[in-house]
What we know:
The complex is a heterodimer of chains A (280) and B (200).
Chain A: H1 5-60, H2 64-75, E1 80-87, E2 92-95, H3 113-116, E3 131-135, E4 141-150, H4 153-157, E5 169-178, H5 180-231, H6 245-273
Antiparallel strand pairs in A: 1-2, 1-5, 3-4, 4-5
Helix pairs in contact in A: 1-2, 1-5, 5-6
Chain B: E1 4-5, E2 12-16, E3 19-23, E4 29-30, H1 39-57, H2 60-76, H3 85-92, H4 98-122, H5 129-145, H6 149-192
Antiparallel strand pairs in B: 1-2, 2-3, 3-4
Helix pairs in contact in B: 1-6, 2-5, 2-6, 4-5, 4-6, 5-6
Amino acid sequence: MFKTLAGRALVPVGIAVTGFVIVCFLLLYSVIKNVVNRDTVGYATNLADTILRSTRYAMLKSDREMLTTIIQNIGRQQGVEHIRVFNKQGIVQISTKKKELDRQVDKKTEGCIGCHAGAIPSASLGRMEQARTFTNGEGRKVLAIMSPIYNEPECFNAPCHVHPPAQKVLGTLDIGLSREMLLKSLAAIRNQMIVFTVMILVLTVGGVTALLRRSVFLPLQKLRLLAMQVEAGEHPEAHPSHFPRELDRIAQSLYNLSQKNQSAGGDQAAIDKGTVPKDS
Amino acid sequence: MQPENDSRGSAPVWRTSGHAMTQSIDHQPVPGLAPQQSQAGLLEQQLRADIKRLNRFSNRGLWAFSLFILVSLAAWRYFPMLSLPNKVVAALGPPPPPNIISIVLLFYTFSAIILSLSRMTAGIEHKSSFCHVGYLTGFLLFYHFAKALDDNFWAVFGSGVTILSIESYRIWTFCREAMSRRNEQLEFLQRTGRMPPEDE
């Protein structure tokens, strides 16, 4: 394959174009995936803020019934996998899943370790650090956000509450959203990009191959046949034509050479037959 | 140090502290040749040494490719021999964002392919394969420390495979052509006792 002109011309071009297009596809897909993930985390964080604002009054009044109803109603929304409210000790106080109530979570697990890595837990985290992804017990992929419930003057000044002013975080809200839709969208984008990439590759490599074959390899093949005919002493039937300008001169030379050979052959035959004197 | 011709006007000879080293066809010194050897024998030895060197050099791309595969395997396992990204980030400061690394990778891939194809077109002998392994390792490390290796490993791998394949092909074809030229020269030398006239 590497000894032919076609192989030598097309292999490096094919590798370069294919490789570069694949690298572009992978990088572009990675960028799109990051953007979609970041947007989803932003959406989930906003939803967590909305829940916190909706439940603020009920928390201030310590109205557990209203709080539970609000959380249960939001939890019924499509795409919401779970909503939990933890207290400072990590015990689940309110949850959309009743079996989780009054259970304590391990602070070293993913989602908690972000703040509880050191001896003194961090009171704030960046938006992306609040997010974690995992597969839940029902086999569904989940994006979860941990949103801290901060202590406010209304909390530690209220007569019914016991939170000291020095306590910065009262608890956390954990909301889990299904990633099924997100993964489906990403898969659709990926498939479309693969189709476009394959089409670009076929068009580019196929186009270059077709053009080279039409403009270079076929004329060269004709030229080779012409050279073989001249070498074998045969006279080409037709005047060589339809060659590119660079090859046309060579074809003309070969044709002229064959004509000279033929006339020289004819003279020699005439000399052998004795019709032409040898010294003429 | 300047090359000088010996008394019979043969090939240039390097004189270095009492040792005589002849210069090969492509200006690579070939040690161990005595100046009293006949010119034809000397040239034959130079050609043979050149062919041997080109044969060794033709595998350079494959060695670079193998090294890159090894580095990629280490990256696939998150560089187990290195300390944790958090420790390195704490010591050196934060790495550039993954998007910036990706843009640089894209430009690097484009430039490396163009450069390699240009060298192929010009027929230049350039030993650049191992540099590319270094650059690609740098990209893998940057992604690792930016905690974005999961998303971008295949992009770096694809870039490496493309660049190193073209480089291997360029080096291999260059060496094949040069070796075939040297073999023709050697055959001519053995037949006539002199070097063939230089091609323009």
